[in-house]
Each structure stands twice: as structure tokens, then as C-alpha cells.
Amino acid sequence: MSDFVLDNPFLEYLDARHVAWEHGYAEFRMPIQAKHLNRRGVLQGGAVATLLDAACGYAGVYAPEGEPAIHGFTLSLTVNYLDTGLGESVTAKGFIERRGRSIYFARGEAWVDDKILIASAQGTFKYSGLKKG
């Protein structure tokens, strides 16, 4: 997979990469490094929530190359933590569940080393500006 341009300074700070993006789907991958751990030595829940928020949000704003960018923002995000984040990398996958004219709904999954599902998410997002349907 080739990386997409990441235009999000906070995700860049986390060393996250935008590795897949198409209509209704987005995927981010982040190496698990010491700076991402909590005091118990496992992946910080806030880092997982950030990746899930990005994957779910970006899943609804895909625009093919050469078309105007689409933007949106999070109205709500619920994350359920299922396991600890111990491994080499974490991947967050976002999937669109339903779209409206101004709001879209997405679900997400966070996987460690593409083997262990460590969190799931559901979110509501609002388009800001141009919306592609």
C-alpha cells in the first residue's frame, strides 16, 4: 500500500500514516513506540481513539485526485476497548455505515499487528463545505 498525503499535524506527531483511502473506507497505521504508551507500558487509549476518529472521519470525506477536498468534523465518537495494545503497530480502519446530506455515520476497528482487535468505535460526523454523495 502506498501512503497518502497526511495533512494533519497531530497525526504526523504520532507518526501515523494514512495507508488506504477510498469511497467509504480509510485506514491509518501507527508504529507502537515508547511515546505512545501509558504508565502501564501499553498503548495509550487516547492514541487508539485518535486513530479511530481519523479513520472513521476520513472514510466519509474521500475525494478522488483532482477533485476539491471534502472536509468534516466529529460530532460524537464512542470507543470500546477490547484488549491491550501490545505489539509492533496499530491499524485503525474506518467504514461508512450511512450518509445523509450533512451528516454521516461510521464505524471503526483498531487492530494490533493485524491480528488482535483491541478497540471498536462508532461515530457521527458532519460535513463542512462541499459534500460528495
UniProtKB/TrEMBL annotation:
Q: Name one GO molecular function term.
A: fatty acyl-CoA hydrolase activity
Annotated SUPFAM superfamilies: Thioesterase/thiol ester dehydrase-isomerase
Positions in coiled-coil regions: none
Record-annotated Thioesterase domain positions: 41-117
What UniProt keywords are attached to this protein's entry? Hydrolase
UniProt entry tagged with the keyword Acyltransferase: no
Q: Which Gene3D superfamilies match?
A: Hotdog Thioesterase
Instruction: Provide the family line.
Output: Belongs to the thioesterase PaaI family.
Q: What is this protein called?
A: Thioesterase
